[in-house]
Design goal:
Blueprint (H helix, E strand, L loop, with lengths): L1 H20 L15 E11 L25 H17 L8 E7 L2 H9 L6 E5 L9 E7 L4 E8 L11 E7 L5 E8 L7 H25 L5 E6 L7 H7 L2 E2 L12 E3 L2 H5 L5 E5 L2 E5 L2 E6 H6 L7 E5 L20 E2 L3 E2 L9 E5 L77 E2 L1
Parallel strand pairs: 1-2, 7-8, 9-10
Antiparallel strand pairs: 1-17, 2-4, 3-4, 3-18, 5-6, 6-7, 8-13, 10-13, 11-12, 14-17, 15-16
Length: 432
Amino acid sequence: MKSILVRLVAVGWLAGAWGWARPAAAKEDPHAASAALFVANWNVENLYDCEDDPDNDGDDEFLPNNPTTRWTQVRYETKLDNLAQVISSMNGGRGPDVLGLEEVENEDVVRDLVDRLAIKSYGIVHVDSPDPRGIDTAMLFNRARFSLLESHAYKIPLKWGETRDILHSVLEDRDGSKLHVLVNHWPSRGGGIEESEPKRVVAARTLAKSIGRIFQREPAARIVVLGDFNDEPSDRSIRDVLDVEFYPADSGAYDPAKIYNLASGKAQQGWGSFYHSFEGNVEWRMYDQIMASGALLQAAGSGHGEVSLWVDKPAFMVEEHGRDKGAPVPTFENQEDYLGGYSDHFPIGVRFAPAADATATAPAEQAPATAPEAPAAETPAPVVVADETPAAPASKAAPAARSEAPAKKPAAAKRAPVAPSRPAVNDDPVYW
């Protein structure tokens, strides 16, 4: 009996040793970079910290002593956790390879956001802009796939007021190819559409010149243009001044030296990323857009089924009731009532899948955003958030801020610095 037991133990040990020594079955790493390129953009709506910047009066609205927002550390961290939940869920849990961000106050808030992401390999490019509200643009890139070659900020030369810079970064892919990324946040429609349109026309001209300079140096450059343009694809600033091409092209052929607006066809079909409500009128608008050069589309096979823009609407950030059903849950309602939500914009994404990448499948198409349903005769009264206890962990199915007593969230892990990919090549942008 003892002999048999010894033999069984020996066989088990050998089997275990063999199992330990031999290569494990290949498992897909959800955070590993794939052959397909996933690019996203998101206006994160007033991502301010709680510290007063003496050089920026624009942040006074988001301070603990502000009687309207009462922007405390708890509210700030809830905002970060909510944004991180959405970003980490993109691209099937891989996160985006490239992500443009609008309405971030400074480099610190971007770092705080990156610290909360499930993917720990993101690099950051950020530049301070002269915007009077103190909000900037930024870009995240997956350092497991890209290295940063250079970055520039282009001023939009307005004769009246100042706005956000255009952020231009040049990334190098693992195969040595370059990718130009231009992040935009054009002047708002404040003061009226017609009154503010000249500002966006100036922004369009600035962007067009920047793209032209890239094509002069690289006639077949891979370029992606993204951001919150505060105009739709059919508006004059984009249609005529920026002069980008409609996507998809009828011929299916793409000129490598032209820019195609991947949001144009979707906007024509009634899609939208921003829910606008004014004086009882509600509508969806495609302010958030992603554009790509013909060379980038050719590299993705240029087939209509291989490149597709969609509005990312995870169920947990969508309003379920009332007049605003179907809209994103923002941080505040009417700039006063704290909801503890996400943003007033949905993120958008594009997956550039090479034709040879047979394993890469595009995400399921989402239905176009339609006008929210009219409220029922007895619309439930809004729930007032009575407690500023941090929101529940990111895995919760619905925004914790919608409950009267949000569960306490786990303490944030100690922040680790994001190491620089490359040294800065000029004095303007900030690199990690």
